[in-house]
Every structure is written in C-alpha cells, then in structure tokens.
Write a structure and sequence with these properties.
94 residues, mainly alpha, 2 helices
C-alpha cells in the first residue's frame, strides 16, 4: 500500500497551495504588495505541480494565483521605474 495520498485512489485532494496562491494573488493588489505577489507565484507553481501529479483538483485556482502574482511583480517593477524617473527628473530641475 502506498504512503502517498492520491486523489485518484480516494485520498483527499491537497488543494491548499492552489487556494493560497489565488487568495494571495488577489490580496497583493490591496494590502500585501510585492511579497504577496512572490508568494502567489511560488504557491501557484506548487499547486499546479500537485494538480499535474493528481494530488490536487484545483489547477485553475493555482494557475490564476500564479498569473496574478506575475502581474503584480510586473506592476511593481513598472512602479519602481516610474518612481526613479520622477525622482531623477525632480532633482535635476532644482
């Protein structure tokens, strides 16, 4: 008998990482920022891997969290670039 729980053999699905990725992917826009985005990417990837192995049933939620995490990281990078440009142009005009 195998020691691993598997959804295909009747075990409980391990959907925690996919759900956490989706929640963090949404919350990063409101209160968690870049840290939430990075965690959403990590948890989303783990959740998608578990779904691919048949251990989880929420691949869509994991993928949504993963994508939202990347969107958050890209927006953070754009924000940093804009802030640097604003500071640089403000200090050169004084």
């Amino acid at each position: 008998m195998s020691s691993q729980n598997s959804v295909s053999t009747g075990g409980q699905p391990q959907n925690g990482m996919g759900t956490a990725a989706l929640v963090l992917g949404i919350l990063q826009f409101f209160c968690l920022g870049t840290i939430g985005a990075i965690l959403a990417i990590i948890f989303g990837k783990i959740g998608m891997n578990r779904a691919d192995q048949g251990l989880a049933t929420n691949r869509g939620a994991a993928k949504a969290g993963f994508v939202l995490g990347w969107i958050g990281v890209i927006l953070s990078i754009i924000g940093i670039i804009v802030a640097i440009i604003v500071v640089a142009s403000g200090s050169s005009s004084n």
